[in-house]
Structures are given as C-alpha cells and as structure tokens.
Amino acid sequence: MSLMHPDTSDSFLTSVRVVCRSQPRINVLNHVLQQLDAFLFPSQAFTLPRCVQHGNIRLFRRVLVTLDNDNTRCQFEKIQQYRLAMQAAAKLGHLWMVQQLYQRYPVALSGATALAAGQSGRLPLIQWVYETKRHLLNMNFYAAVYKAFETSASRGDLHTVQWLVKNFSNVVFDIGIPAKEGQLEVAKWVLEEGKYRCRFDVADEVAVRGDLNMMQFLVNRALLDGPSSAPDLAAEFGHIELVKWLSENESKHSWSFTTTAMVCAAKNGHLEVVKWLHENRKVGCTTNALDLAAGSGHLSVLQWLYANRHERCTANAMDNAAMTGYLKVVQWLHNEGARCTTAAINHAAHKNHLNVVQWLHETRDEGCTAEAMDWASKAGHLAMVKWLHVNRREGCTTFAMDQASANGH
C-alpha cells in the first residue's frame, strides 16, 4: 500500500476549494492553494491519537502527512505519536489507519497494539496482525486472543469466534462469555468444536437476565459446577418462568431458594413472583420484605403480604416510604397501625418531600430532630427549610449553614 501524497486534489480544506473555485485564475495555481490550505489548517491543534479518536479519515490523512513532513519535530516525538495513534486505531478497529502507521513505524505494532486489536473484535484487523506479526497474539498467554474472543462472543459474532477457535486450537475458551450475553448459538458452537471451560458464576449472570433457554442449555449439558444464587436472582429480577424451571430442576444442581428470593422480589415489586413463592416454596420471608417493598413504593405487594403472610413490618417501613416520598404507602401503613421514628421526617426533609413532611407533622407524634433542617439546608431545599422553621421547634445546628455554604446554596 503506497503512502499518501500531501497535495492530492481532495486534501484541501473545503473552505479553500469553495472560495478558490470562484476565482478561476487562482484555482489553477496549485502552489497558491497549498499555501492557503497550510495557513488555514490548524494542524498544531491536532495530534494523531486525537484524530484517530475523532474517526475522521480525511482529518487523519492531513495530520499524518503534516507530521511526516514536519522538520521541526524530533524523530522521537513523531515515533511516539505513531505508536499511540496505532494503539488507539487498533482499539477502534481501524485497519486502514493501523496499516498507514505501520508503514511509517513497524515497531509500533507491539503487544499492546495486538491487545487493542483483540479488544476491538474486528476480524480483518485481527487477521492482519496474525499475518504480519503472529507472535504478538501469543504474548502473555494469548491475552489478545482472549480479548478478541470476549468481544466477538459477547456480541454474537460467530464468524470471528470460529476463526479464533480454528487458528488457536490450543486455547481454552470460556463458554460463560457468550452465555452471560445470551449468545446461545455461539455457546453451542464452542461446546461442539473447541476446547472450553465454563466459570462457576455464569448461572448467576444468566439468571439476572432471565434467559431460560441459556439456563436450560447450561444445566442440560452439565456445564455448571459449584454454588449458585440463580434461584434467588431470578426471583429478584422478576423472571417468573425461570423461577418455576429452576424450582422444577433443583435436583440437577446444588442451588436452592432462600428467604432472599421473596424479600428481593417484594422489594422490586414482582407480585406474581411473590405469590408463586408463597404458594409453591416453603422458604418464607422476613420483615425485610415488607420494609423494602414500602421503601420502593410497592403498595400492592405490601397489601398482599399483609393479607397472606404473618410477618409484619418494622418502623423501617414507614421511615423508608417517607424518605422515598411515597405518601400513599405512608398513609396506608399508618392506618394499619405501623410505627415510625423521627427518621421519617428527617429523611423526607432531606429528600425534599414536603407533602410527606407536612402529613407526618399533622398526623403523627414522632416529630423530627435538628437533622431535618440540617440536611435540608445541605441539599439546598429552601422551601423545606422555611417550612420547618415556621412549623417545627427543633431548629438546626451549625451544620446547616456550614454545609449550605459549602455546597453553594
């Protein structure tokens, strides 16, 4: 591939070409165009790595040619720019840029550049590195190859994965990488065609995503080994079908449901999961289920738990609901005889939930402490501070003014 020449017709700035086109006598004087272009182009403001980050090929070409012909820079400075630019280009998968820089400074194609190329997951670039300096891909226990597999397998690029497995047949690849991203076809192919391993925590990642097909594949192929929180995580994120399947296939793996399942499902408002666990599993729950559901504003979950479970909430429930501004939850808990503490108004004031503060002030007797005005001041909630000053007697401490001043309020 030949190097670029600085005075190719498309290398001039657009502004130079447009203006000079209206002046035919000037437009034919190439040396004049070059002088105008050189004067107007802010080449000193751009480094090669910066051009690479911009991803503008035309800008990259201009700065590269300018750097090539710049006699005011020492060779070391030029080489440093070539090296850093090549690494940046490799990371972004820009093969053409890497090749241009390699022609100028072949040594810049190093282990770090190969690792960046692998991270890009771009097969043409990886193949070029393989053909140019194959040993770089073997460095540090095939670090670049692992990076390439991680990137390509995660995005479902089976073609690149196949090339990697074929050309690095001695490398053991992690099926957990495509598995956690839901790339079932990639995971199946690696299982059938390559050397593989599967890290023990991949079941947890699959459970968080609620990927039933992937979980079935991993379990049925006996790829999972070791403890797992998959059942609790599936419940926490509301994946009811996966919860059911894990329960039905509990004997195939060393997992089990715990009280965390219902607690976290309640916290996240997954009422269907809460009901199913209550009816089909005997793990139960704790008062945390009610306290956290209240703090998250899930009134329907809270009401169902009260109607169907024997656990009752603690003072944390109303305190949490007040802090997060769920007035209807606060009112419902009040009607159910729930308790709260001074933290209810304190936290509601801090988070600027004035309607909650006013209702608690008018309805409850717990009151608040000076912390309410202190933290409202720190957060800059002037209307809240004024209301507390007029309607409450706790006042504030020096913390209020100190923190308001420190935060620019």
UniProtKB/TrEMBL annotation:
Family matches, as Gene3D superfamilies: Ankyrin repeat-containing domain (1.25.40.20)
Organism: Phytophthora nicotianae CJ01A1
Entry protein name: Ankyrin repeat-containing domain
Short name of one Pfam family: Ank_2
Superkingdom field: Eukaryota
TM helices/strands, residue ranges: none
